[in-house]
Amino acid sequence: MLQRSAVIKSKFISHGTLGSRDLERTRIFYQDFLGFEVVQTSKISMMVRCGGDHIYVVVKKPNFPEMERINHNGIDVETDADVDDAHQAVIAAQEEWGLKKVTKPVFQHGTYSFHFIDGDGNAWEILSNPRGGYTWLFEEGDLTGKGHWDESIRDKIPAGKSTKS
User: Fold this and answer.
1) Vertex 90 angle, CA 86 and 14, to 5°
2) In degrees rounded to 5, what are phi and psi of residue 110?
3) What pairing do the DSSP bridges indicate for beta strands 111-117 and 73-77?
4) Nearest CA-CA partner of 83 in 30, 126, 49
5) Which of 21, 100, 103, 138 has its CA 20 to 30 A from that of 124?
6) Coil, helix or strand for 87?
7) Over the stretch 22-46, which tens digit does the pLDDT of each residue have?
8) For residue 155, is pLDDT > 60?
9) What's the pTM value of the predicted model, to 2 decimals?
10) Residue 27 in contact with residue 46, Cβ under 8 Å?
11) In this structure, are strands 73-77 and 123-128 parallel, antiparallel, or unpaired?
């Protein structure tokens, strides 16, 4: 593949931003329900992370709009059974945490997963993925015309990766 010289000398995608309608409640949800590490950074913001160096800045904004599902954030779990367990937990906690638009777990785009919207309007996908998430796809290179769910690359999916169909 032809390497181009980038205009921006990027070295790392360090963060993204999520909204919070109630920072204190959101912190408890992220820590106690989702299992994230949380650091309060100001009266109106905190940072969260889970399993790596990429973080999300969470900013309080009372009228934060609901995120469209296509713009969701992924939370990887180890196995398909863990996806099913997480789905049951989300269903059971819908009223307590204001969770909505919970989809059923399905095999799609190479993973077993489901989606939901949290009480702040942020969209999430919980999915079974190998260690390193989608990193293995970068090792495959461009899959133009196939997509990462293509049957011809199934045998290249790392050990522990979902294979439900």
Assistant:
1) 70
2) 85, 5
3) unpaired
4) 126
5) 138
6) helix
7) 999 999 999 999 999 999 999 999 9
8) no
9) 0.82
10) yes
11) parallel
